[in-house]
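Recall the central idea of this unit: under ordinary conditions, the amino acid sequence of a chain determines the structure it adopts. In this exercise we apply that idea directly, starting from the sequence alone.
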Amino acid sequence: MEGIVDNPQRIEKPICKSVDLDFKVNGPDPYTHMDVKHPVGSEILRKQNSPYTLQEMANNIGESIVKQKERFCEFEQGPESSENVLHIIDLAYVPSPEKEIVKEYCLKGAGSSEGIKFLNDTDK
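Accordingly, the structure predicted from this sequence is:
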C-alpha cells in the first residue's frame, strides 16, 4: 500500500463489526477509509468447489464494492461519503493470463473505476 495511501491503520475490532472496512487512511484526498479485496484464479475456485466462474466471482466483487462504498457512510467512525472509500483489488492470487479478465469483470460489476485501484496486476 506504500505510495497508494497515507498512514493506513487497521480499524479496531469493535468498530470493524459495524463498519466493515479494513483500514482508516489519512489520504490522499478524498480517501479516509480503505478496503482490500483478494480475488483468486479459476484453478483456486475449482479447488474450493466454488459455484462461481472467474467472471462471476470478479463481477460479484465489483458489485459488492458499490454496496460497501454506501453502506457504512455516516456510521460512527465510518466514512462521510462513498467518495471517501478506496477499494484495493489485489490480484496476487490470480495467474497472469486471468488478471485482465478479473479486472474487466470487477469494473463491470462496479460500473466505474472511480475509487478502485489494482495491485499486482502485472508480473514485473
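The first strand starts at residue 9 and ends at 10.
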